[in-house]
UniProtKB/TrEMBL annotation:
This is Fatty acid desaturase family protein. Pfam families: FA_desaturase (PF00487). Residues 70-336 form the Fatty acid desaturase domain. InterPro entries: FA_desaturase_dom, Fatty_acid_desaturase.
């Protein structure tokens, strides 16, 4: 990373600091990896049992969905089950966090989640593109998901004006936005895509949508007999609730006002330590209790997830204090705050960048510059 591409937030760090940060975080990874075992396996099996029990219970309640109490209870229970499946189970299993167990039923190569996005396409757009290029404008397609302006490094266009409304619609139907994410619509519109590859991806998306719609909007409503209409509405509502929750958690981990974005020059000869620091600067946590962490898929520890995306999510809470202490020693920001504050900060940014504003080509400081810390 050259001086020109370094944020003022990290201008005080020396090459020796970056090397020390890399050694410490690599050692932390190795320590946790060596300690994985029975309690971790028991955790993911327990969460899967809870999730499946909730889904069965929710769908059973919806057999009487014509009764308002049963509709509300069934919809809420099914929504919680879908959130758990997508966030704490599906997202993390497909990251390979549980591949070390060598269980073919809980493995990144076999898991297909309850979502209209095909697992294979999600793993490419998320695990490969996003986690490699975190917050690199023009490289990380998760920066605004290709339709929102969320940083000063992005140019403004009149199409950005309605983005608060666009973001609201994206939240409600987030799984469909995720489904088309790997298509890289900007390349398709510019004619820089491979047409056959795009058609193949669209066919896969179509198959997954048909499968999900058949389950939620045909089979289970039919099984409820005369409650068909109310069960269909309940399933739709549960999906929207899941989508809004997932959108909120993910956006709060990536776009609150204090995170930084970078230009592609940042990647020039980027060292391991510089990669780690980019994850620290470009991520934000959500403070809260165990229930929030569970329901967020532990993406409330987004900083730790970006540092160690393939470590089991149940370990992020114990890693977090050590990561925060490292940040304090090296004068680095550790972005965190309660859910309400992170939501407000994210929406404030989305509204602000809907309008024209100065565009910059390199990050500005998001924290005071401090003297170098001892390794």
């Amino acid at each position: 990373m050259t001086t020109a591409t370094a944020s003022a937030t990290v201008a005080h760090l020396t090459p020796a600091d970056y090397e020390a940060i890399a050694r410490e975080l690599d050692a932390l990874r190795e320590e946790i990896t060596a300690d994985l075992g029975e309690r971790d396996a028991a955790y993911i099996h327990r969460v899967i049992r809870w999730q499946r029990g909730l889904e069965i219970g929710g769908r059973a309640l919806l057999m009487a969905s014509s009764l308002p109490p049963a509709w509300l209870a069934g919809t809420a229970t099914l929504a919680v089950a879908k959130i758990l499946e997508n966030m704490e189970i599906g997202h993390n299993v497909m990251h390979g966090q549980w591949d070390w167990m060598r269980d073919p039923k809980i493995h990144s190569t076999t898991w297909e989640w309850d979502n209209v996005s095909p697992a294979g396409q999600w793993k490419h757009s998320h695990n490969v593109v996003h986690h490699t290029n975190t917050n690199i404008v023009g490289r990380d397609n998760d920066v605004g998901y290709g339709i929102l302006r969320v940083s000063a490094e992005q140019g403004w266009h009149p199409a950005n004006l309605p983005q608060p409304l666009v973001n609201l619609l994206l939240a409600m139907f987030f799984e469909y936005g995720v489904a088309v994410h790997d298509l890289e619509i900007d390349k398709v519109l510019a004619g820089r895509n491979d047409p056959e590859e795009t058609r193949a991806k669209l066919r896969a998306i179509g198959r997954k949508i048909r499968r999900q719609w058949a389950k939620d909007y045909l089979v289970f409503p039919l099984l409820s007999g005369p409650q068909f209409g109310s069960t269909l509405a309940a399933n739709f509502t549960a999906n929207v609730v899941r989508n809004v929750w997932a959108h909120m958690i993910i956006f709060c981990g990536h776009f609150p006002g204090d995170v930084e974005f970078f230009t592609a020059e940042r990647l020039d000869a980027e060292t391991r330590g510089e990669w780690y620091v980019r994850q620290l600067l470009g991520s934000a946590n959500i403070s809260g209790g165990p229930l929030l962490h569970l329901m967020s898929g532990n993406l409330s520890h987004q900083i730790e997830h970006h540092l160690f995306p393939d470590l089991p999510s149940n370990r992020y809470a114990e890693i977090a204090p050590r990561v925060r202490a490292l940040c304090e020693r090296y004068g680095l920001p550790y972005h965190t705050g309660p859910l309400a504050r992170q939501v407000g900060s994210t929406w404030k940014k989305i509204v602000r960048y809907a309008f024209p504003g100065p565009r910059r080509s390199a990050p500005e400081p998001s924290a005071p510059v401090r003297e170098p810390a001892a390794a």
